[in-house]
Every structure is written in structure tokens, then in C-alpha cells.
TrEMBL record, chain A:
A GO-annotated cellular component: cell division site
Protein name: Catabolite repression protein creC
UniProtKB keywords: Repeat, Transcription, Transcription regulation, Ubl conjugation pathway, WD repeat
Gene Ontology biological process terms from the UniProt entry: carbon catabolite repression of transcription
Automatic annotation (TrEMBL), chain B:
Biased composition (Low complexity): 487-498, 791-804
Positions in coiled-coil regions: none
Subunit field text: Interacts with creA, creC and qutD.
Any one Gene Ontology molecular-function term assigned to this protein's record: cysteine-type deubiquitinase activity
Organism: Penicillium malachiteum
Name the UniProt record assigns to this protein: Ubiquitin carboxyl-terminal hydrolase
Enzyme Commission identifier(s): 3.4.19.12
Sorted UniProt keywords: Coiled coil, Hydrolase, Protease, Thiol protease, Ubl conjugation pathway
Annotated region described as Disordered, given as residue ranges: 1-45, 115-149, 244-272, 487-614, 635-820
Biological processes, Gene Ontology terms: protein deubiquitination; proteolysis
Annotated signal peptide: none
Length: 566, 820
């Protein structure tokens, strides 16, 4: 007997179902429900502190195509029509439970000024009558009754009102995008697979979303989400109200690749667009046709082209500010814990560190090769970790402005990275990463344990520790290197480089001079690329391209778990 | 100005084609429309001499897409193109022009309209005949203007057609695969048109003459072809070098220096050695084996021209490349013979790259032999590839271990299996972005388009061969800066209407006056001057290619002689590469319409004839394939039956020779070590093919591997086209057993007698080929043969092969290490 091998792996990508239909793939035609499963044998993650056990695997239902968006059957695999942008499932989690807050590592209280502080035009617009501090301003339009062509329909689960009333007030809400749907889930409830509300959009796919941590209350959540069309939705799920910002791409018509509320801001959020522009919007402000305020093409290439400064006097309408970093896609960005800095990663392979309050780029680092995809800060703000198309995670020291180590372990591109603040302390750091190789990897690093490659051990002591005050020898090398690798290599332009641009463009460290860090755990956790990873006080969660949301409980003997099971 | 007289390709007999009947203006949106490619090629400035501005499709002669896609990839490798053009010397542009003047044809721009009308008519009358001939892919409605088939048809009918002719005597070489490659490249470089279609007929003729494996209309493996071509170029060049070393002694050395140095205008290094293929594509792999008993590390270097990597689902090229450097234990039955301890010992082995090639050709092993099915199966694994790459698995002493590569070409295989399908190439050109080369069709594509072929998308299209070329970070940054600038300029343009890029527009301003563009065009060759050949003196002051220096090998008159086509030369219409040529032509046609009417009609008929023939040819090919498939199925069954009892023995026995080349490469030295593979393999569920995987990739029929291992000869049926070739083809091969004739008419049975090969290092796979040529030439086997086998490579084509350099480098297969 011959055992026939499985058919060629043609897994269904929800995002490409239109094309899938053309290929004879099963495509949902009716609205389906989320399903939950508890895989036999689990998928335990074994690490030093114990075993993380897979609690469940929640599969989000891929919505059927919108009636107006009939699957385009194009049998030609070489068709040059561009594919609409889409992405796998990402989660935004929110809990009101103070115990679920990640530990804070910053010694001093955050004292960063507000974005645009000092610009009177940005001063609290007309001093909104704060009758009740808890009474949050809601968006204007009701999403259920909306006649917008952007929103297709809203499906509220029949029991959701009851569930909302009965739920544990400290439970965790999750918001997830899948295809053209956006689901609101209560992942601490018993029936967590049933969505509370599902919003279906007509054509656009939501690519990213974020919840405002500052304004969250039991009756109010400010969510912003960015779509493949460039439109941004400000959504308040409790009241089912929404507002549309950057409507029809009036400010920037390129897909929104990442979106985050400005730390410490109730109204302002930042969105990165696929055309390399970072825009700060105000959820309260109206759109206006945007023309760059600085006229013409800049004479010289600069790392940051300010299309509109936060200091602009014209702050009646969106955007608050708009900066062009490159023409390439901005993959991701992250705010530093001290709320002063911004790390941006781009498809061109650069990591750009910004003082976003001053609208300046400070440093440019580069991936080993290929584009960068994800970035995050260590909870204490000392380190930045990036992941990219070189299959590597790279640890950068923020105060020293240098590469610390490259982490090899993924078999494909790294799609997301996050620190586990519950397992970080001042000396050691834990972070996790997921990638297109369907793997979840966990990493531990402490500066002391990093060993540099043998051949260059002696060099490590005079490794550039700081670019601010380098010793002469390494300074010479830095200059030489960065001279060759700087953003602008045209000789006539470099003349003015140091006068006007305090930006340091760092050379790529050769492999022989960089520490290589192995993972402490590597596990294939699914059959489709994983695109998001998050740490909670009691679990690790991942979500995948096709909509699998997996949750691992922390080891039962873990101190944390004991502390929280009170 | 002479007005153009259009004629079609040789099959049409090159009749004088008067302008067609006035096309119905309502029905004629085509001529004024510029194609996406033409749009991309705006602002190109004058024709360049380095060939970087030529974007030609290649005619498909029936399943020759493997050849077309690889040739395109090689052409757009700048150093390779330069080397080919400049070795042994660059043909002077003038003589090229003379040849090209006869080889380039400008078709009637309205031809397709009539062909269409004709086709419609024909379809109405004989619908069945048409349908039988079309490829299964072709939609029933022929009016699908977006279909590649339609676009190709239009391209063939409207674009200039360039026939690559043998010009080898002009640079003093005898015709070979290299010279025909050079002829193609030179034709493109010397062409006055930027776009068009080149006919690699001569190249294919040579290929088929020397390699019988390619004689059928069968689907061939593009990677195999690449490897064969590079090896051929190496041996052709080296044969030439040996020849020159005899003849050149008589010549003053300065002249040859002139021909190499002076004529090289583009500033690239001229290939003054014969090792330029090696310098570009060759890398060195080191296998380090550490005996666990005495701790002694033994090393062994091997060269490769391309790397074949095993694939895993959801992996990246980086990871596939890294996998092969993973340590591997040689233990149990697999032990390593340590010279130091003098016995079989457990050892640790790993492969690393010691010298990085300048052009890294990566072959993704999408065709995997599955034991269960006993044949190759295509893997649709999602394997991502970045635009840039560095290699992790370098040795400590490797030079420039952090070398940065950029992806510049992707060969895509479309189809469900290894025995059929289609190849296209997606190539990053020097300054016009990414283009899709699909036989006759050349289309600009978005940079993101390159990422559509990871393997997970519907449509069965997967990247199959990736070409990475060395680059520097500065170059990458420059390019990114240029992209930034372009995008902001585009943004500015859209808002301000008037772009500031007018400087570039000078040469592409559509104009009715073809003579307007002369001043700069003189530098190269003005399009308008082409028919008037005695322009040559004008070039001398400006062109560095002026053939002032006497040609060392060949008098300058000779070049013109051979390439003259059989048709009488025609006056050509002044061809301009850009939009205006279309308009110009349209206008001219109007004037000449009356005169040309009659001839046009004739041409039409001929076109029909041609199309008919084409259809018949395709039909034949189809039928052949059908027959083949049937045959395969039958064979498979038979082989399965035959093999059942013996399969286990075979798996072990055959392994050492046929395991992945990396293993077998050490066969001579670590005889025992290589056996480990077979052991390992037999443990694997999905066995590595016994053959070096890449070899098995091309086996055009399912290879029942087992029977060959039986002691008595086992019949392996082969479909062949021309039985008469058998006798001659067979003579040079000693490693293969005699051939028996099958009772059936066209099918031949080969007895692969493994005993005959047992002692050689040959891959004595039960090689089944579509043509006897496979056996004759021993190429497909030979260049995969792990060691430079002395007996394997004296095949018929080369006599000067005796020195060691001409050994064929095989491509290198990486073995997948066990997944964690």
C-alpha cells in the first residue's frame, strides 16, 4: 500500500479568497461563526521557568466577500494588477484590571511634554467643557445605523448585551481584524468564541488598530483603526459610535500600516502610511484637503521631510503633523516607554530613532539585509528589538546607540516581536517573536551573557560604546564607516551634512563583530504564518494569518500566576 | 526619407508588404496607444552602446520558455553581458549593423488587426480546427485583450523582429553555444530598436544539435538549462583560449589588447581571461569533516556555479541556505573513514561557503522526488525571498563574508508538475525597474510583483531560480534615495502639472520629423540612418567601437558574409524606438496604402499560413505530450510492479552514487561517508531522490529508480522522437548499457545496466530521457556528477577538454537537515 502524501499545501489565505475562489478553493459564502478548539496534546512551550500550556485555539471566521466585491476570477497568475493590501489577524487587548497592568521599570515618573506643547494653536481646542472627567466624548455617527458605503453592516451577537452586563469588569477585551471584518471579543468569558460585535466593511480591510489606554473606562473605549484604503475609523464599541478620519484618503491615500495613540494623549494618534509618511491625527478634528506646507521638493535629501509641522499655526483641521520619512513602506513604529522617542522601521531596511516631540530623526540603523518588519522597546526603554526579512531579531542599545546582538532562530521573516514585561527585570530581558515560519520563539538576554564571536573577542572592549563620546580610535572607524554608508553618499551633499543634520547613520556591523543570540525556545505553533504576539500577565497569545488566536497559560508553578490567582 | 516597406518573418517569405487597407478608425485604438513597456521606456535618451536599454521579448518555438527565461536573466546580468559581448572581442558596431539591417524586420503595425479579423473569420468557418490547436490555457473567447496569449500575438505582429544569426566568424570562433549566445546579445546591443522580439532560432539550433535532450518539444528544466549553458560557455571559451594560444603567438600582442581594451566603451572590465564565467558564477564550498575520535578536521573544497537548496514549508531562502551548513553526524552505517586514525569513525560534517560568487544563482528545489508516487512532484511551499541577501554560512576565512547581494532576476515556473508548465522571468533592469519577460511579451511590473511567487498564491506560479548579484550598501542606498526622489517628484508633478524633468524628455518628444534627433543619436547610431549604411565614417570620431584596429583573427570583411539571411535585404523603414515611430509609420502607411494593398493581401495569407503551421505545430506538441503522459503512466505502473521486491536493496545501493551531490562528491575520498546518505535517506519518509535532486528534476519521465539496480537489465521505456539518432549518439557513452528497441514504433527502451557504472563515480541513475541525446551527451549526468569524473566528460562536443578546467561544475545541492 502506498500512502498518498497530502495534496500540495494550498492553505486558504482568507485575505486572498477572491483569488482562491478562482483556484477552486473553498470560499465561505455564508457568514460563519468563530470556532474554538483545544488541540489534543496541546502545544506546550517548555522553557526554564516551566511549561506554557496551550489553553485553546480560537479560529476567527473569515467573512464572505461583500456582494459588491464579487471574487475576481483571473486565471492568469502573472496578472500585473496589484493586489489589494491586507494583513493577517492582529489583536488589541484591553483590560481595566490594574493587576493586569505590566510592571513599570522606569525609575522616574514620565515627564515628557505633550506632543505639540507650546503651540497655542494646538492648545486644548476651545477648552472642551469637561463636565465630567469620566464622561468621554464619543464619535458622532452610529455605526449600526450608518448608511455609509464604507461600513457594510454590523452584527451584534444576540447575547452580547447580557454578556456585557454579566461580565467580569476586570476581564480582557480583544479586538481583532480579519479580512474585511473587525471583531470585538471578550476573551475572559466562558464563550469567548462568540463575538460581541462584528463590524463588516465593504471593501477595505482593517490593517491595524489601537486602544487608548488613557481614556478607557468601563463604558468607553477609544479605538482607532487604519484601513487598506487609507481611511481611519475612530470607533467606540460600547456606544457603537464611529467617526471617519482621512476620509477617502483626503490627507493621505495610502494604506495605514500601523496606528498608535500618542502616549499620554486623549485625542492624538499617529498613523504610518505605506508611502512612507507618518501622520499625527486628532480624533476630534475634521479632515481638510492636505497640501504640504513646505512647498516644493526639498533641495536635499533629508531623513525626515516635514510636510506639516506640529508647530504649524494651522491646526483647525487634520492632520496635526505629517512627516515623510521615505518613499518606502513604513512597516511599524513604537513609542519609547519614556514617551519621548519613537522607533520606526521601514521596508528599506532602516530603523530610525526619532525624537518625535522635536520632530527630529536622531539615528538611522540598518538591518543586516532586507526590510524591517517589526519593532518594540524593552520595558525600561534601554533596548529596541527589531525583526525583519533577514530572519533575524536585532537588539539595539538605545543609550549607547549601537547594535547589541543579532538573534538567529527563525526560519523565515519575523513578523512581530514583543517583550514580556512580567519576565523582565533590570538585568535580564525576555521577549518573544513570531514569524512567517509559523514559529513562536522566546528569547532571554542579559548584557553580561552576550558573548561576541570568538575571533573578535578582544575587539569587543573597544567596541563603540557611545557615539556621543567615542574614543579616538573607534571614532575614526565610525566616521570612515558611516561616511561610506550614510544616507546621502553624493559627495557634494556631504559637505553640509554635519552642519545641518545631526542624524547619525550607522554602518552595518559585520557578522564577525556582532554577538549572536540563540533562542531559549522555538516551536512551530501553527500551520500558517503567525503575525502577532502578545504577553499578558497570565498568558502568551499569538494570532495567525488565517485567524487562529492561540493562548498559552503561563506555567502553573510560576510565581506570577500564583500572585494573580488570588 | 525612404518609406518603410514592411515585411514579416522568414516564414512569410519576406514579401513586400504594402500598407494594409486603411484600418477602420473606430476599430483601431491600438497604434496610437503606447504599451506599458513603452511608457516605462520614455525618457531613455539616445540608444546606448552597452545594451542596457534593450527590452526584447523572445519568440517561443514551442516549449522553449526555459531557454528564453534563462537567456533573459543572463542578458540583464551586467557583468555577464559585458563579458559575453567583449569576449573574445567586441564585434564592431558597423558590422553588427550590417548584419542587423538584414535581420531586423519591422512588421506592419496594423498587422494584428487584420490577423484578428482573419482569425475571427476563420473561427467562424472552422472553429474546431482552431480550438484543437490552442493551448488549453487559452480562453475560449479570443478577444480577451488582457490575456497573455493575446498580448503575445499582438507583440509578434507589431513589434520589430530581430533574427539572431550566426556571426561567429567575425570574431573568429567556430559556431558554438557560446557564439550563438554572443550573437543574440550582440544583436540586442546593436539593435536600433529598444523593443521588439528576438528569435533565438540559431541558438536553439546549436543547442539541439549538441544536446539531443533538447531536441524534443518537451518541457525542459530551466535550472538544468542554466547549468548546462554556463558549463558550455566555460568549455567553449576555454576551447577558444586553447586555440588562440596557438594562433595568437604569431600576432603582435598589442592588437588583441586593443580589441579587448579599446572597444570596451562601457567601462567594465573586459574579460581578458577565460575565467570570467568562473569569476561571476563560481563559488567554493568547503566541507569540513571533524573526526570525533582524533578531532582532526579535514577539509575539501568544491566549486559550484549555482546552488540548489532544499525547501521547507514556510521558510525563507535565508533559512534554506543556512540549513545546509547545519552540522551533520556521520555515524552508524555512515561512518567516516579518517585517514588520521585509519578507520571508520564517527564524524561531524558541515558545508560552508569559502568563496562567494559575484552572481549567486539559487535553484529552489521545487521538484521533489516522492517515493510514494515514485516520481517528481512539485512543492508549493511558501518560500519567501528578500530583495537583498547575505550568506550566513561562510567559512571564517572567507573573503568579504558579509557580501551584500541584491535580487535581480527570478525565474518563475507556472504549472502543477515538473513535466509541463511555463517559465517566465522577472528581471530588475538597470534603470527601468522590474520587467516581466514572458516569451514574446515584456511588461513592466511593480516592485511588489516580485513577491507574488513565494509559492502560496493560487495560479501555481512559484519562483524557481533566483539570481542574486553582488552589490554594495551604498548602491542600495543610492537606489533608495533615487526612489524617494522619484516618488516625491511624482507627487510634485501631479500637483504642479509641470514636471521639472524636461531635460530628459528631449529625445522622446513625439515628432513627425525623424531627422530631428540626429545630433546625439550619432554617438551611437541614429535610428533614421540605419538603412543608409555607408554612414560608418561618421561614427569614427565619436564611437570608441570604430573598428580601427585590425581584427586579430578575422579580416573585417568577413563578418558580413555569414549573417546575410537568405532573403534579399530590404530597405527598412526608419525605425525609431519610441512612440513617434508608431505615429510615423501610421502616417507613412497611409501614403503607401494603395501600392501596398496587393502585397499586403499576400502577406496576410502568408500570415495565416504561418499561424496555421504554428497551430499544427502546437497541436503536435500537445499530442506528443499526451502520448508521453500516457506512456509515463503505463511505465510507472510497470516500474512499480517491477520494483516492489527490489526497492529496499536499491535504496541503499544506489545512494552513494546518486545521493545529493554534496554527499557523493566525497565519494572518492570518504567512500564510506557517502553511504550515510543513503542510510539517512532510507529513513526519510519522503526520500531524497537517489539522483542528485537537481538531476532528477529534469528527468522528464517519472523515474522508477529501482529497476536500474537490479542485476539484470531492466527495461526503461523512453519516448524518443528520432530513433535514427540512437546509434550515433550512443557511441561516446561507455557508462550506459546497450539500447533495446521497443516493439512500439517510437518508443525505445534503454537498459540501464548499473553494473557497468558501479565503479565509476557517475550518477548511474536509471536515467530516462525523452531523447537518446541524454545518454549520448551525458551532460545532464555529467555536470551533476560529484567528482570531475575523467570518463564522463569526454562527450562528443569538445575536443579540447583534456585540461582539468573544462570539467563541468555541477550545481550544488544542499541537503535538508532534519526539521526540529
Amino acid at each position: 500500500m502506498f500512502v498518498l502524501p497530502p495534496p500540495p499545501p494550498r492553505y486558504t489565505i482568507p485575505v486572498a479568497y477572491a483569488a482562491g475562489a478562482a483556484n477552486g478553493m473553498a470560499v465561505p459564502v455564508v457568514e460563519t461563526n468563530n470556532t474554538i478548539s483545544h488541540p489534543e496534546g496541546g502545544c506546550p512551550l517548555q522553557v526554564g521557568e516551566g511549561t506554557y500550556t496551550l489553553k485553546d485555539d480560537l479560529l476567527l471566521a473569515t467573512p464572505p466577500p461583500h456582494p459588491s466585491e464579487a471574487p475576481i476570477i483571473n486565471p492568469n497568475p502573472l496578472a500585473t494588477v496589484p493586489n489589494p493590501p491586507t494583513c493577517g489577524v492582529k489583536l488589541s487587548l484591553v483590560s481595566l484590571d490594574p493587576r493586569k497592568k505590566p510592571p513599570v521599570f522606569l525609575k522616574a515618573a514620565i515627564s515628557a511634554p505633550q506632543f505639540g506643547e507650546g503651540n497655542s494653536a494646538l492648545a486644548p481646542p476651545a477648552a472642551p467643557p469637561a463636565k465630567d472627567a469620566l464622561k468621554r466624548r464619543k464619535p458622532k455617527n452610529n455605526i449600526i445605523k450608518s448608511s455609509s458605503s464604507f461600513v457594510s453592516r454590523v452584527i451584534t451577537h444576540e447575547t452580547s448585551a447580557k454578556r456585557l452586563n454579566d461580565r467580569d469588569p476586570n476581564g480582557v477585551f480583544a479586538f481583532a481584524n480579519i479580512n474585511r471584518a473587525f471583531q470585538w471579543l471578550d476573551i475572559t468569558s466562558a464563550s469567548k468564541e462568540d463575538h460581541l460585535t462584528k463590524v463588516l466593511f465593504t471593501k477595505s480591510h482593517m490593517l491595524c488598530h489601537d486602544i487608548n489606554e488613557l481614556t478607557k473606562t468601563s463604558s468607553h473605549l477609544d479605538i482607532v483603526m487604519g484601513s487598506s484604503a487609507g481611511d481611519i475609523i475612530w470607533y467606540e464599541p460600547m456606544s457603537q459610535k464611529y467617526a471617519r478620519i482621512n476620509k477617502n484618503g483626503v490627507i493621505n491615500n495610502s494604506p495605514v500600516t500601523h496606528i498608535k495613540w500618542l502616549p499620554g494623549s486623549e485625542n492624538l494618534f499617529m498613523a504610518s502610511h505605506a508611502n512612507g509618511v507618518l501622520v499625527v491625527y486628532d480624533k476630534e478634528k475634521e479632515d481638510a484637503l492636505f497640501t504640504p506646507e513646505n512647498t516644493g521638493i526639498p533641495e536635499k535629501e533629508i531623513p525626515l521631510e516635514i510636510l506639516k509641522s506640529v508647530n504649524s499655526r494651522n491646526q483647525k483641521t487634520n492632520p496635526v503633523s505629517s512627516w515623510k520619512l521615505a518613499s518606502q513602506r513604513i512597516s511599524n513604529f513604537a513609542f519609547s516607554p519614556d514617551q519621548r522617542h519613537l522607533a520606526v522601521v521601514l521596508e528599506d531596511g532602516s530603523l530610525r530613532l526619532m525624537d518625535y516631540l522635536k520632530e527630529e530623526v536622531l539615528d538611522i540603523f540598518r538591518s543586516y539585509y532586507g526590510g524591517l518588519i517589526c519593532v518594540c522597546w524593552s520595558p525600561d526603554g534601554k533596548y529596541i528589538v527589531t525583526g525583519g526579512q533577514d530572519d533575524l531579531l536585532t537588539i539595539w542599545s538605545f543609550p549607547e546607540r549601537r547594535i547589541v546582538a543579532r538573534c538567529q532562530g527563525h526560519n523565515s521573516w519575523v513578523s512581530a516581536v514583543a517583550f514580556d514585561p512580567w519576565r523582565c527585570d533590570q538585568k535580564t530581558y525576555r521577549f518573544g517573536s513570531v514569524g512567517d515560519d509559523c514559529r513562536l520563539l522566546l528569547w532571554d538576554f542579559s548584557v553580561g551573557m552576550l558573548h561576541r564571536p570568538r575571533a573578535h573577542h578582544q575587539n569587543s572592549t573597544r567596541q563603540r560604546t557611545s557615539l556621543v563620546a567615542p574614543n579616538s580610535q573607534s571614532a575614526a572607524r565610525t566616521r570612515a564607516d558611516s561616511g561610506a554608508n550614510r544616507m546621502r553618499s553624493d559627495s557634494e551633499r556631504t559637505e553640509n551634512f554635519y552642519e545641518f543634520e545631526p542624524v547619525t547613520s550607522h554602518p552595518i556591523e559585520p557578522r564577525s563583530r556582532t554577538a549572536m543570540l540563540p533562542p531559549i525556545m522555538s516551536k512551530i505553533v501553527g500551520t500558517d504564518p503567525i503575525c502577532w504576539v502578545g504577553f499578558q500577565n497570565d498568558c502568551i497569545m499569538t494570532s495567525s494569518l488565517e485567524g487562529h488566536i492561540r493562548t498559552w497559560d503561563r506555567p502553573s508553578d510560576s510565581v506570577i500566576n500564583n500572585a494573580n490567582s488570588l | 526619407m525612404k518609406k518603410g516597406i514592411f515585411h514579416r518573418g522568414p516564414r512569410n517569405g519576406a514579401t513586400n508588404t504594402p500598407s494594409p487597407a486603411p484600418p477602420n478608425p473606430k476599430k483601431d485604438p491600438q497604434p496610437p496607444q503606447i504599451s506599458p513597456l513603452e511608457k516605462r521606456l520614455q525618457d531613455m535618451g539616445p540608444i546606448r552602446v552597452d545594451g542596457s536599454d534593450k527590452f526584447f521579448g523572445m519568440e517561443n518555438y514551442g516549449n522553449t520558455c526555459y531557454c528564453n527565461s534563462i537567456l533573459q536573466c543572463l542578458y540583464y546580468s551586467v557583468p555577464f553581458r559585458e563579458a559575453v559581448i567583449n569576449y573574445p572581442q567586441r564585434t564592431p558596431l558597423e558590422s553588427l549593423e550590417a548584419a542587423l539591417a538584414q535581420n531586423l524586420r519591422f512588421p506592419n503595425p496594423n498587422a494584428h488587426l487584420e490577423a484578428e479579423a482573419q482569425a475571427a473569420k476563420q473561427k467562424a468557418t472552422v472553429p474546431s480546427a482552431r480550438q484543437a490547436g490552442v493551448t488549453p490555457n487559452q480562453p475560449q473567447k479570443p478577444e480577451d485583450k488582457e490575456s497573455p496569449e493575446y498580448k503575445k500575438k499582438i507583440a509578434l505582429q507589431t513589434l520589430p523582429i530581430l533574427e539572431a544569426k550566426n556571426n561567429s566568424t567575425s570574431y573568429g570562433m567556430s559556431e558554438s553555444l557560446f557564439t550563438s549566445l554572443k550573437d543574440i546579445f550582440e544583436s540586442l546591443v546593436g539593435s536600433q530598436s529598444r523593443i521588439g522580439i528576438i528569435r533565438p532560432q540559431q541558438f536553439l539550433d546549436v543547442l539541439r544539435r549538441e544536446h539531443e535532450m533538447f531536441r524534443t518539444a518537451m518541457h525542459q528544466d530551466a535550472h538544468e538549462f542554466l547549468n548546462l549553458l554556463l558549463n558550455e560557455v566555460v568549455s567553449n571559451v576555454e576551447a577558444e583560449a586553447t586555440k588562440q594560444s596557438f594562433t595568437e603567438k604569431a600576432l603582435p600582442p598589442s592588437e588583441s589588447a586593443d580589441s579587448l581594451g579599446l572597444t570596451n566603451s562601457s567601462g567594465s572590465k573586459s574579460p581578458n581571461t577565460t575565467r570570467w564565467v568562473h569569476e561571476l558564477f563560481e563559488g567554493i564550498l568547503t566541507s569540513e569533516t571533524k573526526c570525533l575520535t582524533c578531532e582532526k578536521v579535514s577539509q575539501r573544497d568544491e566549486v559550484f556555479l549555482d546552488l540548489s537548496v532544499d525547501l521547507e514549508q514556510h521558510s525563507s531562502v535565508t533559512s534554506c541556505l543556512r540549513k545546509f551548513s547545519a552540522e551533520e553526524m556521520l555515524c552508524e552505517r555512515n561512518k567516516f573513514h579518517c585517514d588520521n586514525c585509519g578507520g571508520l569513525q564517527e564524524a561531524e560534517k558541515r558545508m560552508k561557503i569559502k568563496r562567494l560568487p559575484r552572481v549567486l544563482a539559487l535553484h529552489l528545489k521545487r521538484f521533489k522526488y516522492t517515493e510514494d508516487l515514485q516520481r517528481l512532484q512539485k512543492l508549493f511551499h511558501r518560500v519567501v525571498y528578500p530583495y537583498h541577501l547575505r550568506l550566513f554560512n561562510t567559512t571564517d576565512d572567507a573573503e568579504d563574508p558579509d557580501r551584500l547581494y541584491e535580487l535581480y532576476a527570478v525565474v518563475v515556473h507556472i504549472g502543477g508538475g515538473p513535466y509541463h508548465g511555463h517559465y517566465v522571468a522577472i528581471i530588475k533592469t538597470e534603470d527601468r525597474g522590474w520587467l516581466l519577460f514572458d516569451d514574446e511579451l515584456v511588461e513592466p511590473v511593480d516592485k511588489n510583483y516580485v513577491r507574488n511567487f513565494f509559492g502560496d498564491r493560487p495560479g501555481l506560479a512559484c519562483a524557481y531560480v533566483l539570481f542574486y548579484q553582488e552589490t554594495t550598501l551604498e548602491a542600495v542606498l543610492r537606489e533608495q534615495a533615487a526612489e524617494d526622489q522619484a516618488s516625491s517628484a511624482a507627487a510634485a508633478e501631479s500637483s504642479t502639472q509641470q514636471p521639472n524633468g524636461n531635460l530628459f524628455h528631449v529625445h522622446s518628444v513625439p515628432t513627425d520629423d525623424p531627422n530631428r534627433l540626429t545630433p546625439i543619436h550619432k554617438i551611437t547610431t541614429a535610428p533614421g540612418q540605419m538603412p543608409v549604411h555607408p554612414e560608418v565614417p561618421e561614427h569614427e570620431p565619436t564611437t570608441p567601437h570604430a573598428p580601427l584596429a585590425p581584427q586579430p583573427v578575422q579580416p573585417p570583411e568577413v563578418p558580413q558574409a555569414p549573417p546575410i539571411p537568405s532573403e534579399p535585404p530590404r530597405a527598412l523603414s526608419p525605425k525609431k524606438s519610441d512612440v513617434q515611430s508608431r505615429k510615423e509609420k501610421a502616417r507613412e502607411e497611409k501614403e503607401m496604402r494603395a501600392a501596398q494593398k496587393a502585397a499586403d493581401k499576400a502577406a496576410k495569407e502568408e500570415r495565416e499560413q504561418y499561424e496555421k503551421m504554428e497551430r499544427i505545430r502546437r497541436k503536435e506538441a500537445d499530442q506528443l505530450r499526451q502520448a508521453q503522459i500516457k506512456q509515463e503512466a503505463a511505465d510507472l505502473e510497470k516500474a512499480l510492479r517491477d520494483s516492489k521486491q527490489t526497492s529496499k536493496v536499491a535504496a541503499v545501493d544506489i545512494g552513494p552514487e546518486n545521493g545529493s551531490p554534496r554527499e557523493s562528491s566525497k565519494f572518492n575520498i570518504f567512500r564510506r561517508g557517502s553511504r550515510s546518505i543513503s542510510h539517512r535517506l532510507s529513513k526519510d519518509k519522503e526520500k531524497e531522490p537517489r539522483v542528485s535532486t537537481s538531476t532528477s528534476d529534469i528527468a522528464p519521465t517519472p523515474v522508477p529508480e529501482v529497476p536500474a539496480q537490479q542485476t539484470e537489465p531492466v527495461s526503461l521505456p523512453v519516448v524518443t522522437k528520432d530513433p535514427s539518432e540512437l546509434s550515433s549518439s550512443y557511441t561516446s557513452v561507455q557508462t550506459f548499457p546497450p539500447i533495446q528497441e521497443n516493439p512500439s514504433n517510437d518508443n525505445h527502451v534503454y537498459n540501464a545496466n548499473p553494473k557497468a557504472n558501479g565503479s565509476s563515480s557517475h550518477t548511474n541513475l536509471p536515467f530516462i530521457s525523452t531523447s537518446p541525446g541524454t545518454l549520448n551527451n551525458s551532460n545532464p549526468i555529467n555536470f551533476h556528477s560529484p567528482v570531475y569524473s575523467p570518463n564522463g566528460n569526454g562527450s562528443s562536443e569538445k575536443s579540447g577538454n583534456s585540461n582539468g578546467h573544462t570539467t563541468r561544475w555541477r550545481s550544488f545541492s544542499f541537503k535538508k537537515s532534519a526539521a526540529s
